[in-house]
Amino acid sequence: MGRGRRRRRRQLTGGILALDLSSTVGxxxxxxxxxxxxxxxxxxxxxxxxxxxxxxxxxxxxxxxxALKRFRPQHLCLEAPLPPQAQTNATSCRxxxxxxxxxxxxxxxxxxxxxxxxxxxxxxxVVPKPPRGMFRDDKVSKDTIIAWAKSQGRAVTNDHQAxxxxxxxxxxxxxx
Length: 176
What we know:
Elements: E1 16-20, E2 24-30, E3 39-44, H1 54-71, E4 75-79, H2 90-109, E5 113-117, H3 119-126, E6 135-136, E7 139-140, H4 142-151, H5 159-175
């Protein structure tokens, strides 16, 4: 009597996982080269009423580990936090650097190369310059980034997802 073969769910491996780091983390996964992102989304990090940031960090750690297990990327591209002197809010600064540290620790654990990406540079290179008046202080507006992602056939629901797609495309251009 022969044994039946079990079908394994194909697991994606290699590739690039891009993260837009904030209280809602945008993420996008794709392979090097041309072609659309294979998957994207966002994680709303947990908060408690007496939030000491621990709940956000634990939530991010859980979500990131699950994504790293699922995708097994070779590259982890992170939104580079602003330098401390450029930060305008101490809590935001601690969150940015805390998320960055957690991501780097997990990248080490999963043997991923880490790349810090300046989101402003990525947007300038990837997103076509909109008509005059859509920039604010030489920054691309959130609406413009979302419109760009939708023009790429991606049904993004927030600017965090769109920024993760921008980071992914920017790094893919770098690898080409």
